[in-house]
Design a protein that fits this description.
Shape: globular
Largest sheet: none
Helix content: over 70%
Oligomer: single chain
Order of helices and strands: HHHHHHHHHHHHHH
Radius of gyration: 20 Å
Number of helices: 14
Length: about 375
């Protein structure tokens, strides 16, 4: 293994993908249309964990802390494996979210800074690709597990796996160079760049993500009637969405040089908003799939912007925590059912405020960071 730390981080990313989708069929079967609450609590936990990383510098300084937070994530799975019930799943997802929120800024920072000869753009594609692979396998693993074992057994084993893998990573983790406190102020980080340039794309991409996952968990069988053999609608949908997510990253990596990203950050949300309005009017499920393709491309642009700016887990935590409320809003909108799509669509119309600044869409070989100067 040429780059052990980088590859172990990718393995952890894969496992996170497994549990992001693996809980969809679990919550669908156990909670039905009440699944929006554990999803919302999970997203709130993500936000709180990242805010803690930003507010308390010591939470990101020791090299072992990343692994500790991932082990805490595994402990949440063990908790849900030992006990059962609606409140256990709901509180367990909140615990899981806090642990993931603490770990994610350090995971992403280690991913970018880990020793290797790979460009940031390729790192992001690999990171998202292995996450999407885990996302594909999550529902399948859950279904296969339930054929022979109880879900509690699966959660207990998975929690132990998280603990073992991350404990093995501790000796490989380097120390982070501390970032001066003055550089972590909002005024310093945002400088003279307005909220739209640094905030909106990531926020809206996450808002749609929170809405889509929660909405499909609760209402997939209402708007989709897919069945292939013994593979049910929920499993097929998560497979399709995972391939869309991975494909969107690859599409972004291959085509971004032909477009002005600044233009796409205005056009894509508007197109997503139109699609959601059509879904509200026609109630035709495939329109959500089309929006998911657009969202995957938008997130690629947003995360590529991200890597041009961050130097530490605390900076990542700040930027991410400013956008993570979008997932909470999306999940709560999904709790409103079909009406929630209109709220998410309304948020997608905000780029109209900047339409007069729209640059030419086609711009060969344009550097992404040059559009932010």
């Amino acid at each position: 293994m040429k780059y052990p730390l980088f590859n172990l981080i990718l393995l952890v990313s894969f496992l996170h993908g497994v549990f992001a989708s693996g809980f969809i069929p679990i919550l669908h079967d156990k909670l039905g249309d009440q699944a929006s609450w554990p999803f919302a609590l999970y997203f709130v936990g993500l936000l709180l964990g990242q805010l803690m990383i930003y507010w308390v510098g010591r939470l990101s300084q020791h090299r072992a802390l990343f692994a500790v937070y991932e082990i805490l994530f595994g402990a949440s799975l063990i908790y849900m494996g030992f006990f059962s019930g609606t409140w256990v799943l709901t509180l367990g997802r909140g615990w899981e979210g806090i642990a993931a929120g603490l770990a994610t800024p350090l995971l992403f920072t280690h991913l970018i800074l880990a020793p290797n000869n790979i460009e940031n753009k390729a790192k992001i594609v690999r990171y998202n690709a292995v996450y999407a692979l885990g996302y594909v396998m999550g529902p399948v693993l859950v279904k296969l597990t339930l054929l022979r074992f109880e879900i509690q057994t699966f959660l207990l084993f998975s929690g132990l796996l998280f603990m073992v893998v991350n404990a093995a990573m501790i000796p490989l983790l380097p120390h982070f160079e501390p970032v001066p406190k003055a550089d972590l102020k909002l005024s310093k980080l945002f400088g003279n760049i307005n909220w739209f340039d640094k905030f909106y794309s990531l926020f809206y991409g996450k808002c749609f993500y929170g809405f889509l996952l929660t909405f499909l968990t609760s209402y997939a069988t209402v708007y989709f009637h897919w069945q292939i053999g013994k593979i049910d609608t929920i499993t097929l949908l998560t497979l399709v969405l995972a391939f869309i997510f991975a494909g969107g990253q690859q599409l972004g990596a291959k085509t971004i040089k032909y477009f002005n990203p600044r233009s796409l950050e205005i056009i894509i949300p508007l197109t997503m908003a139109i699609t959601l309005v059509l879904f509200f009017a026609l109630q035709w499920g495939p329109l959500l799939i089309f929006s998911a393709v657009l969202q995957a491309y938008l997130l690629f642009i947003a995360f590529l912007n991200f890597t041009q700016k961050i130097r530490s887990g605390r900076e990542f935590a700040l930027f991410n925590s400013l956008s993570d409320p979008g997932m909470v809003i999306g999940a709560l909108c999904a709790g409103l059912g079909l009406k929630g799509a209109i709220i998410v669509a309304a948020l997608g119309v905000l780029p109209l405020l900047y339409w007069r600044h729209l640059p030419h869409v086609l711009s060969k070989n344009i550097a992404l960071h040059s559009t932010r100067s």
